[in-house]
Amino acid sequence: xxxxxxxxxxxxxxxxxxxxxxxxxxxxxxxxxxxxxxxxxxxxxxxxxxxxxxxxxxxxxxxxxxxxxxxxxxxxxxxxxxxxxxxxxxxxxxxxxxxxxxxxxxxxxxxxxxxxxxxxxxxxxxxxxxxxxxxxxxxxxxxxxxxxxxxxxxxxxxxxxxxxxxxxxxxxxxxxxxxxxxxxxxxxxxxxxxxxxxxxxxxxxxxxxxxxxxxxxxxxxxxxxxxxxxxxxxxxxxxxxxxxxxxxxxxxxxxxxxxxxxxxxxxxxxxxxxxxxxxxxxxxxxxxxxxxxxxxxxxxxxxxxxxxxxxxxxxxxxxxxxxxxxxxxxxxxxxxxxxxxxxxxxxxxxxxxxxxxxxxxxxxxxxxxxxxxxxxxxxxxxxxxxxxxxxxx
Length: 393
Prior knowledge:
By secondary structure, the chain is mainly β. The chain is 0% helix and 43% strand.
C-alpha cells in the first residue's frame, strides 16, 4: 500500500525454528482459501560452481530435459563467470555445458522466450567482469547449446534519470511470450554520475524485427531496483526491492501489480505490502494445484544481510503470511520450480549467506506432503567464504 515504502534495516539475525524430526519449521500461516500451510526444505545437492558457489544469478527449469539452466554467475572470489551450467534433476548432478555466454554477467534474471530460432533463455543487461553495468541482450538456446548476443539496435534501453544504464537485476518477468523488465538502479561506484533509481518498465518482444523489439510500459509507483517478480492470474507482481540511497540499498515492503497492458498502470493501492522489507529473493506464482492463487517468496534479502523467511501471498485474501523458513539464510540466490503446479518442488541454490559475505554452495528443495504441507530440510555442506559486498552492484 502507498505510504509504507521505506524500511530501514539494521543488522539481521537469521532465526531458524527447529521442530521435531530434525526438520526446520516456522509458524503456520494462512494459505489458499484460508487453509494453513507449513513450509520446510529438504536437502539438495551442493553446487560445484567455481568451487565456491554462485550468487547474483538465476535458474530456469526446462521441463522436457528436466534440467535447471544457469547462465553464469558471480563467484566466491568476486569474479564473474559466463559458463553455462545445468542441474540434472534426474541424476541430481551439476553439468558444465562447455558453452560460455558472449558477455559474462551477474545480476540477471532469465526470461524463457520463443523467438524465430526456437526456444531461448534471455537475459538483459547485468554487471560484467569489469564491474560495469552493461546493456547487452543475450540468449542461450538449450536445444543447440549455443549462446548469442543481440545487435546494437536491440540493447536494453533502460536508463536512470541522468541517463545511466539501469541494472534491473531480478526485475524480469515473462508473460505471453514477452519479457517485462521492471525498475533498476545505478551506482557511482560502477561508473554512473550518481546513485540513482529507475521507475521504468520495458517490454521485449522476441519475435519483432530487430530494432523494434523494445517498447515502453508504465512507470512503477516507487523507483527502485532488485525487485523480485512473479506472475499470478495473468498479472505481474513487483515485490519489494531496494532504493539506492547514496550508494546504500534500502529494502522495501511495497508490492505492485500490473496486467502487462501498456495502456494500464501499475497498481499499488489494491495490493497488500510485504510484512517485512525484502529484496533480491525468488518468488513462485501458482494458478493451480495445492498452492493455487498464491505467490511464495523464498528467502528475504535485507541488504547487506538476509532472513531465511518464506512468505506467502494469497490473492483471494490479499494478504501475506510467514509460512516457513529456510535452513540457510540466502540472498541473490537462483531458483526454479522443478516439479509442477500440481506437485511443486521449489529449488533454490547459492546466494549470499546471513553475514552478507559467505557465498553458499548449498541448495534446498521444498516439496508438498500428502497432508498438504510443504517440507524443507537443510542442505549440506556449508558454503565457502567469499568476498564482502561493497556498495556497488
